[in-house]
UniProtKB/TrEMBL annotation:
<keyword id="KW-0805">Transcription regulation</keyword>
<protein>
    <recommendedName>
        <fullName>Bifunctional protein PutA</fullName>
        <ecNumber>1.5.5.2</ecNumber>
        <ecNumber>1.2.1.88</ecNumber>
    </recommendedName>
</protein>
<feature type="domain" description="Aldehyde dehydrogenase">
    <location>
        <begin position="44"/>
        <end position="482"/>
    </location>
</feature>
<dbReference type="GO" id="GO:0004657">
    <property type="term" value="F:proline dehydrogenase activity"/>
</dbReference>
<keyword id="KW-0520">NAD</keyword>
<comment type="pathway">
    <text>Amino-acid degradation; L-proline degradation into L-glutamate; L-glutamate from L-proline: step 1/2.</text>
</comment>
<comment type="similarity">
    <text>In the N-terminal section; belongs to the proline dehydrogenase family.</text>
</comment>
<keyword id="KW-0238">DNA-binding</keyword>
<keyword id="KW-0560">Oxidoreductase</keyword>
<comment type="pathway">
    <text>Amino-acid degradation; L-proline degradation into L-glutamate; L-glutamate from L-proline: step 2/2.</text>
</comment>
<dbReference type="GO" id="GO:0003842">
    <property type="term" value="F:L-glutamate gamma-semialdehyde dehydrogenase activity"/>
</dbReference>
<keyword id="KW-0642">Proline metabolism</keyword>
<comment type="function">
    <text>Oxidizes proline to glutamate for use as a carbon and nitrogen source.</text>
</comment>
<keyword id="KW-0678">Repressor</keyword>
<keyword id="KW-0285">Flavoprotein</keyword>
<keyword id="KW-0804">Transcription</keyword>
<keyword id="KW-0274">FAD</keyword>
Length: 506
């Protein structure tokens, strides 16, 4: 049953106030992209040809450590202005950045546009949050004492980014560390070094000193060398739960090393619960967007669709019809809904899994390229899904009437807690889900992807991550140390203030 809706038009709006999937505005962008894509393909720049080594990781940390005092000593206003200049530069280079996202990460055009906009949003949001939230705070205290709480950078942060948001998350983590007065060694995913190299070059152009932000491309060995370095004062990581665990272990291994923060944003086995009162067309559109947009390669993506028994067969029939309207193909073609997956290893893993599953519906894939066709798989029980399959693969399970709480508890029992969706028109169902769902982001009657910076702080619980949420009001606080300074203003000869001596007098 084909649906009369633009399936991927449902992603919400961000800073520019333009629908991310508005294809009518993309014509101009696409024609200029074509030129850039071929340019990018020819360009064998540093990041692509160069893989970092363990020695370079050491050198980079040393240089960033030497740059720390000067960068930390700049005013908040200075650092915010630089980050806002970076946002302007990202906007000015939008088409070029989109082109690299398309050619290097196989993002579709609407996804590449969303990627650049989200990066811009992170820069502007964190600059504002630092300006508003990190000024010294005068605290009330016992009579006669002046108490001030100050925030200061911690030192050198390692930021380790995923390939699925190679610009937005790469820069989001990095800019948060920089704006709070830290210096950064930034390691992009091995699949996406070029977009990171462009982002770092623009940050330097915006005024970040070259030693305050150092790009370190490379694989897991380079990441391991970085986190094992005792001079690292914190790690911001987005990727798999297994890698987050390795990083946590490596940060704690050396007994002489300070205990430093790890911000980890990891995987999820995300479920959407649909009851018999939900609006069917909206459900189907939101399911297709949540499960198949970005070829399912978002940690927020829908993996497990839980349909109340009465509506299961009709919903599945509509879903199959909607899947038929999806176009697989060249991600640089604005008509494409689903592009290839990131690399051969991902392709092989997903295709092998699909081959042994009970497939309800799938599509034909283009003959050439790493296309995993959107696939609907039936499972008997919620417990049968035991792993995060990071691609366009959706599992469906039914649940009996009157068992909403049990259904939510079965999802909770997986131990992940990133996103959950509910489609229902019953207020009590929404309240019950809100009370029981152990997730970082609960979405009611909408899709489960596309968290907007500043409005929908993003991040999970349990196996899905440590918090604090990216794009939320508490994120920057994890990047700073707090210093409480208390001055007795009564004892020094009864003077209410300290004497102003110049340094030569001490
Ligand atoms: C991720 O896939 O790593 O809500 C994060 C979203 C994005 C974040 C996804 N803003 O889909």
């Amino acid at each position: 049953i084909p649906l009369p809706v633009d399936l991927f038009g449902a992603e919400r709006r961000n800073s520019a106030g333009v629908d991310l999937a508005d294809r009518t505005t993309l014509g101009e962008t696409v024609s200029s992209l074509r030129g850039f894509v071929s340019l990018c393909e020819q360009k064998d720049d540093l990041a692509q040809s160069h893989k970092g080594t363990k020695e370079e990781a050491k050198k980079a940390v040393g240089a960033a450590a030497a740059a720390f005092p000067a960068w930390a000593g700049r005013s908040i206003e200075d650092r915010c202005a630089i980050v806002e200049r970076l946002a302007d530069l990202l906007e000015a280079h939008r088409d070029e950045l989109m082109a690299i996202c398309v050619s290097e990460a196989f993002k579709t055009i609407p996804d590449a546009l969303g990627e650049v906009r989200e990066a811009v949003d992170f820069c502007r949001y964190y600059a504002r949050a630092a300006r508003d939230g990190l000024q010294p705070v005068e605290l009330p205290g016992p009579t006669g004492e002046r108490n001030v709480l100050r925030y200061a950078g911690r030192g050198v942060w390692a930021t380790i980014a995923p390939w699925n948001f190679p610009l937005a998350i790469f820069l989001g983590q990095t800019v948060a560390a920089l704006v709070t007065g830290n210096t950064v060694v930034a390691k992009p995913a091995p699949q996406t070094p070029r977009i990171a190299a462009r982002a770092v070059a623009l940050a330097h152009q915006a005024g970040v000193p070259s030693d305050a932000l150092i790009l370190l491309p490379g694989g897991p060995e380079v990441g391991a060398a970085l986190t094992a370095d005792p001079r690292i004062a914190g790690v911001a990581f987005t990727g798999s739960t297994a890698t987050a665990r390795k990083i946590a272990r490596s940060l704690l291994e050396d007994d002489t090393r300070p205990i430093v923060p790890l911000i980890a944003e990891t995987g999820g086995i995300n479920a959407m619960i649909v009851d018999s009162t939900a609006l069917p067309e909206q459900v189907v559109a939101d399911v297709v967007t949540s499960a198949f947009r970005s070829a399912g390669q978002r940690c927020s993506a829908l993996r497990l669709l839980l349909l109340q028994e009465e509506i299961a067969e009709t919903t599945i029939a509509m879903l199959k019809g909607a899947m038929d309207t999806l176009r697989l193909g060249d991600p640089g073609d604005p008509a494409t809904d689903v592009g290839p997956v990131i690399d051969q290893a991902a392709y092989d893993k997903l295709m092998a899994y699909r081959a042994r599953a009970t497939v309800l519906k799938t599509l034909d894939a283009p003959a050439e390229g790493l296309f995993v066709p959107p696939t609907l798989i039936r499972l008997a029980r919620i417990e049968d899904l035991t792993a995060e399959w990071f691609g366009p693969i959706l599992h469906v399970v039914t649940w009996p009437s009157g068992k909403l709480a049990e259904t939510i508890r079965s999802v909770n029992a997986k131990g992940y807690g990133l996103t959950m969706g509910l489609h229902s028109r019953i207020a009590r169902a929404a309240e019950e889900t809100e009370a029981l769902a152990e997730v970082g982001n609960l979405y009611v009657n909408r899709s489960m992807i596309g968290a907007v910076v500043g409005s929908q702080p993003f991040g999970g619980e349990g196996l899905s991550g440590t918090g604090p949420k990216a794009g939320g009001p508490n994120y920057l606080h994890r990047f700073v140390v707090e210093r409480a300074v208390s001055v007795d203003t009564t004892s020094a000869g009864g003077n209410a203030t300290l004497l102003s001596l110049d340094e030569g007098g001490i």
